[in-house]
Amino acid sequence: MTDEHAFVRLTPAAEALGSVPVLINATHSPMDAGHAAMLFSEHLMDSLQHERIATFDPDHLVNYRQHRPHMVFEDWRFTDYAEPEIAIDLLRDDEGRALLLLHGPEPDLQWNRFTAEVISLLERFGVESTVSVQGIPMGVPHTRPIQLTMHATSRDMIGEQPDLFGTIQVPGHISGLLEYRLGRQGHRALGITAAVPHYLAGSPFPPAAAALVRRVAQHAGLALPVGELEAAAARQGAEIAEQIRDQPEVMALVTALENQYDSFVRSLPGVVTGPDTADGVPTADEIAAAAEAFLADLAGRDDEE
């Protein structure tokens, strides 16, 4: 569709586009812990050559009263408006290979129509595999490697993984629905989630985005840059270490999470990690209280600065 009020508008570049083997879905929502998908998409858009292929009309998809876009007011007038943007871009990796990136805020409305339109575009552009990325809050410390969990429409896409959850119900989200619908229609789709420390889940967490970039590149055979995210992760790690150095309660909780994490990882086949110390592992309420205090302290320091 190309008229002014179309649900999705294609650019002239889309008309001439041939087959693209992979699409990465990095739509983000408040459920995206550590803003992992948002950081992922912003990093690729900033780092790689890109060209717009399709734009979805936000008036069909966004509840503006629930998610109010930011406006800038200065000198007694409004000077800018952050228009919500849900789009598909054609990117080229560092070796010139093509990929598609679906990015922007998760739609509030018309999920069935949106997923159907995305699948139609995937089929039009010959996409063979779809990869979705997301962050999830977990009881893990920020001082350990990011743990990634994969799920897919076909078991052969993820290999062997420990069964951590069994059968559970989770809140619906557009990435999960798209993966479900793709599987029902015989398409291959993979989801990769990065575990984000729950006490940092509400803030940007570059280590999670960096881990997702590396895994997507490995899975899809792409040359994706990750250096900027790794540098941001190193800076954030140093800042957190500085801020909690004089907070013994938080240090104790992080240490307990480290011990718990090491014990769990060492229990997995073929994994070796640090020593196990089960004593002093905090309760969920203790962790939540310390996390709230930690985040409040960070917010207070930001205000002072």
| Distance, first to last CA | 49 Å
Question: What are the secondary-structure elements, in order, as H or E?
Answer: EHEHEHEEEEHEEHEHHHH
CATH architecture of the largest domain: 3-Layer(aba) Sandwich
The number of helices is 9
Estimated helix fraction: 25-40%
Count of distinct structural domains: 2
Flag low-confidence runs: 270-288, 301-305
Give the C-alpha Rg.
Answer: 21 Å
Strand coverage percent: 15-25%
Envelope shape = globular
Please summarize the sheet with the most strands.
Answer: 8 strands, mixed
Spatial strand sequence of the major β-sheet: 1-3-6-7-2-8-10-9
Can you give the mean pLDDT? 85
The helix/strand class is: alpha/beta
Which CATH class of the largest domain is shown? Answer: Alpha Beta
What is the fold named in CATH at topology level of the largest domain?
Rossmann fold
Strand elements, count: 10
CATH superfamily of the largest domain: PAC-like subunit
Q: What's the arrangement of secondary structure elements?
A:
Blueprint: E1 8-10, H1 12-15, E2 22-28, H2 36-47, E3 49-56, H3 58-61, E4 71-74, E5 77-81, E6 86-92, E7 98-105, H4 111-124, E8 129-138, E9 148-152, H5 174-184, E10 188-197, H6 206-220, H7 227-244, H8 248-267, H9 284-304
Parallel strand pairs: 2-7, 2-8, 8-10
Antiparallel strand pairs: 1-3, 3-6, 4-5, 6-7, 9-10
Helix pairs in contact: 2-6, 4-5, 6-7
